[in-house]
């Protein structure tokens, strides 16, 4: 595998999230439509639904790598509390 094909290593604790691997996926149009409807029912994008299903299948098969990061949180990031006025 060439260096260009290797995924970047996950960042150290407290670092930024590692870059996500981009892949092209060709699906039967009816399969995609069913997937998109299912994703909409669960308030996910089609991409997030695919990742969710792949991770679930890998976990059930005992093949999810231990170093795999968690699924990214959905929705808006949580609000940070305002810094108290030091004065």
TrEMBL record:
InterPro entries per record: Arc_rbn_hlx_hlx, Ribbon_hlx_hlx
Q: Where is this region: Disordered?
A: 1-21, 61-87
What residue intervals traverse the membrane?
none
Query: Would you tell me the protein name for this molecule?
Result: AT hook motif protein
Organism of derivation: Streptomyces antimicrobicus
